[in-house]
Amino acid sequence: MNDLEKLSQLASEEAVLKALLDAVGDRLKDVKADMQAALDEVRSVRQVSALLPDGTEIAKISLTDPKPEAVVTDPDAFLAWVRENAATEVVRRVEVVTEVRPAYRTALLAQMTAAGRPEICDKETGVVDTVPGVEIKATRARSHSVRFGKTGKQAVAAAWQAGQLLSVALPQLTAGEPDRCPPCPDPNGPWDANGRCEDCTEPQA
């Protein structure tokens, strides 16, 4: 293979892979959104098994609920409270912006997140004070994760190579009727999902 032939081969492979990647990426976004919507609708289900057409489990789809945490919803009220209760933790930047010291803000929010309430307990006096401008709420939307089993990805690759996923993933890229072979006298079968008959080892035209 000369240099031009090698360049042409690589160009073709890159273009094809790019087209497939774009198609897969676009479809994955749609499927993930549909999956999340379905999980949000069926609140009683938190985990779903992902199966190949032959029933082999390849992964589990698990719902992830973000944990509520303390967030500042009213910066002015929060600043006023800190100025009154911990004045040394209020700083003024060069551009004349007064704010709560970031490290103190983080520490306060962490304490309130742990307590599950927008309240701070004075360690010396034991007095519990409600901190204005802070709420305990989820800061991220519900989502889900895909965790493959030990051999899940290998099983997917094998099923793809065997043509078992034609109707499962990106059917628009593999549209067409299964190949049929002469050994089958019945024009309606017996075809399996891969277009093979009982006498076939490989699909034949």
Question: Can you characterise this structure?
Answer:
This protein is an alpha+beta fold and about 200 residues long. The chain has 4 helices and 9 strands. It has a 3-stranded antiparallel β-sheet with strand order 1-2-9. Strand 4 (about 90) and strand 5 (about 100) form a beta hairpin. The longest helix has about 40 residues, at about 5-40. The model is unreliable at about 175-185 and about 200-205 (pLDDT under 50).
Characterize this entry briefly.
This protein is of the alpha+beta class and 205 residues long. Helices cover 36% and strands 19% of the residues. It has helices at 3-41, 75-85, 102-115, 152-161, and strands spanning 47-51, 57-64, 69-72, 90-92, 98-100, 119-121, 128-130, 134-137, 143-148.
